[in-house]
Structures are given as structure tokens and as C-alpha cells.
Amino acid sequence: MARMRQLFPWFVYKAGKNPAWYGTLRPDPGSFEYRLKLEYRPGQPPKVWVLSPVVHPGAPHRYQDRSLCLYYPRYGEWHPGMFLAETIVPWAAEWLFFYEVWLEDPEGRWFGPEAPHDKKKERYR
Amino acid sequence: MLALSEYFNEFLSNIEPPEHRMAVAKEIPDDVRRYLKDSETFETAEPHSRLTGSYKRHTAVHNIKDVDFLVFVSYEGEKPEPAALLKSLRATLDDLPEALGYGGRAQTLYGQRRSVRVEFDYEDFHLDVVPALIPNGIDEVLLVPDREWGKWVDSHPLGYGKALSELNIASGKKVVPLVKIFKHWRTFQMQRNRPKSYWLECLVFRHVDRGWVTTDGKSYAELFTDVLRSIRERFQDKISEGGVPKIPDPVLGHNVAFNWERTAFESFMRRLEESIGWAERALEKNREQLDEAIELWQKVFGEEYFTDSPTLRKRQKAAWLSSGGWISSSGIVSVGKPKQEKGVKPPKHRFYGDEG
């Protein structure tokens, strides 16, 4: 928690029945301010949702529950020993940045690093 | 080395021929080819005609003002007289507007040295119809008439088209865009005494084909600079020796620039030298000096290109960030370490898709 407060002071932890971090990120000076929810429960991978503004339904790199797909689980790019503030939150900021570029790119390219996909998936608008 | 990949991609898409010109370039030649195929006064041989030139090779830039096509001439025994054949082709094309029902599309014919030019006044467009004999099949060297020399001369435009296509694939599809960049550079840098587009194609082809310019892992910015440097290196001696250099045809080997004048060559070399200076300085800039690099490329290609926009700037940043960047406390993603806020450089990762 201390690391989060130090690096991303706009993120606050809300305890309760469904504890989660809530915060805002603006990936580029001219961007929207995105409101995010970060859920992390022991024994499960962290999950991040964009609460607002609404993400384009065709946006790539999201799970079926619409949470962001920030790393390749099979290669251990993230493990519980890592700080959320040093991995998941900055990766979410990157996701937002590449998402905005994807939205405006005439060819619908995703410029971020991508893991290979096992199955064919519609990635473009 | 600062490679402005997205700016070059945008630049390449801006120098492409516009769609409406592509449509004209496609529609009119098709009509004329059909007309000649059906003509009773000018007998053609299978496969009757083929498109050639930069339109066919996809090396055209800006407005397509001309399309070249070969019309294959049927003959038996002795070859026809070149001048007589060109005259006969011109006479046949005289009836073209009426036959095609072009109505308002005025048409003017010009007898060229090796072709008949058909100009469509209202389209700002012309066709160069080149008659050709097929002594050994269309995949081999063809013969085209030369009015001035009064003889048939070797020509292999289809062979060159094939060779260019193969070289383009072998180079990771970088040769054709490079030809386009070079042609645009010539048009912007030289108002008079411009070297012909085909000479520039031959130069790029030769320098890549010989391995003097390598394409692997290079951006268009680097490649273009390398092409200019390679040409300078091989043409420099001619500046002190006198004369003009030869530019060999990629397939037949003859000098395509046989009528290049000394003053035109000197002017080309001056423009080349100047642009190498700007390009090298642009490549030396770092990512914090984007504005300066853009300004230098604008000197090379013109101020209406490499124009900056928030979208393009962001796309360029995205291309640089694909190998990682910094994130500030407010979430701003940047190539360098944030100066105003705290920042973190996250470990490498890859976005993944839907796991279902």
C-alpha cells in the first residue's frame, strides 16, 4: 500500500465486501481521465477494469469479463511477489495509451507489445 | 538514431496517387486496350496488350498523369517498318473517341519516338501506347519501334517489372516505397532538369540489388539516406572527371540515361549533397528533439509533408514505446523519465488477448 501511495497517490483502497483500488490515469496530456478499478484477491491474478469513459466494445486485449489483459500469464510476467504499483498500474496506463492510439489509427494497429494468440480473435474495429 | 517510422508511413500514404486518379488510370486504358483488341485496321497478337510503366509497377506517386501500355503487333515474316507501324497505330487511334462514345472527352494524338501518345484534355491524363513485337514470347525480350533510328530495338519492361517485384519481396517490401520516396524527393528538390522517374527506379534497383544499400532492419529514414549516400559515392568521381554517369537498365544493361546533360547531372548532385546533410542531421537527433528532426525532414521533402499533429505525434510515441517506457504518477506514458512527477519504469510485459 505504501508503494501505491508513493507512486500513484490518486489511487485509493476501498475495503468492504468487495475490496479494490480505485483511481484515475491520464495516459497522455491530451487524453481523457480514465477511472479504473483494480481488484486483487490472494491466490488470484489482479484484475483491472476501466469504469469510465466507456471503452470501445472492439478494443483488443481484454478478457471476456472486460478486464484488461495486461500480461502473458503463461510466461510469468507477473507474480505475487511484484508490487501492483510497479507493474499492474503502469501496465494499465500503457494499455490506455495504446488503446487511444488504436482508436485513432486508420489501420487499427495495436502498437504495444503483444503475446501470441492461440486462437484467432477479432482485434480490429 | 532517430527513425520517425510513423511520420514516414504517413508521408508515404500522402504521396500515393489519389483514388480518383487511380480510377481514371484504370478505366481509360482498359477501354483503349479493348478498342485495339477489336480493331480491324490494326491487327494485334495474343495476349494483345499489357500494362507497363510506374502505374503497373505501383511506383507512381502523386497524380497519375500517364499510363503506358504495350500493344502486341501481329506480323508474319519481315518486321514492319517502325515509322509505318507507328503511323498505322496513330491512324487507328484517331477513331477512338467516337468508337468509345467518349463524348466530351477531347483527345489529341501525338506521334512519339517509340509510341503514340493519346491525351485526354478533360482528364489531364495521357496514355503512351507502345507497339511491340514478340519474337520469343512475352516473357522474353520484346522489340519496340524507334522512329529516329528507323529500327526495332530491344525492350523488356515486363521482365523489369518482374525483377522489381522479386527484389521488393526479397527486401521486405521496402524497395517500391523507397522508389516512391526518391521520386517525390526529385520532384520537390528539382524544378528543372529533373532526372526521369525511370532513371531513379533503375538507380534504387541497382543499389539495392548489388547490396550497396542493405534493407534489413532499417527504417525508411535510414534507407533513403543510405541510397543518397550510395549514389553520391558512386557518382562523385564524375563531378571531377567530367561527363555524366551511366545508369544501366536493370534487365538489358544499356544506359537508360544516355541523354542526361552535364548541367542536369551537376544540379542533381548538388541537391543530393544538400539533402544528405539534412538527413544525416535529422538521424542524429534524439527522441526529445522530435521538432528539430521534423524540421530537417521537411527541408528534404517539403513543408506540406511531415506536418505535425497530436495524433501523429502520439502514434510515433506509441511506435517508440513498444519496447517500454515510463509512467508518471498521473498515468502519463512517456519515452523518457518524467521530469515533473514521480515515475516508474515497469518490467517488460506483453498484452494478451481473450483467454475465454
Question: Could you explain how this protein is built, in words?
Answer:
The complex is a heterodimer of chains A (125) and B (356). In chain A, a hairpin with an 8-residue loop joins strand 2 (20-25) and strand 3 (34-39). By secondary structure, chain A is of the alpha+beta class. Chain A is built from two helices and four strands; from the N terminus they run H-E-E-E-E-H. Chain A has a four-stranded antiparallel beta sheet with strand order 1-2-3-4, covered by helices on one side. Chain A is globular. With 356 residues, chain B is an alpha+beta fold. Chain B has three domains: 19-155, Beta Polymerase, domain 2, CATH 3.30.460; 161-301, no CATH class; 323-356, no CATH class. Chain B has twelve helices and ten strands. The model of chain B has no long low-confidence stretch (mean pLDDT 89). The chains are: A alpha+beta (125), B alpha+beta (356). Chains A and B meet through helix 2 of A and helix 12 of B.
Features:
heterodimer, A: 125 residues, alpha+beta, 4 strands, 18% helix, globular, disordered C terminus, B: 356 residues, Beta Polymerase, domain 2, 5-stranded mixed sheet, 3-stranded antiparallel sheet, elongated
Q: Helix and strand layout, with pairings?
A:
The complex is a heterodimer of chains A (125) and B (356).
Chain A: H1 2-7, E1 12-14, E2 20-25, E3 34-39, E4 47-52, H2 88-104
Antiparallel strand pairs in A: 1-2, 2-3, 3-4
Chain B: H1 5-14, H2 19-38, E1 44-52, H3 53-57, E2 66-73, H4 82-94, H5 96-100, E3 107-111, E4 116-120, E5 125-132, E6 142-146, E7 151-155, H6 157-170, H7 175-189, H8 197-209, H9 220-241, H10 262-284, H11 290-301, H12 310-321, E8 326-328, E9 333-334, E10 343-344
Parallel strand pairs in B: 2-5
Antiparallel strand pairs in B: 1-2, 3-4, 4-5, 6-7, 8-9, 8-10
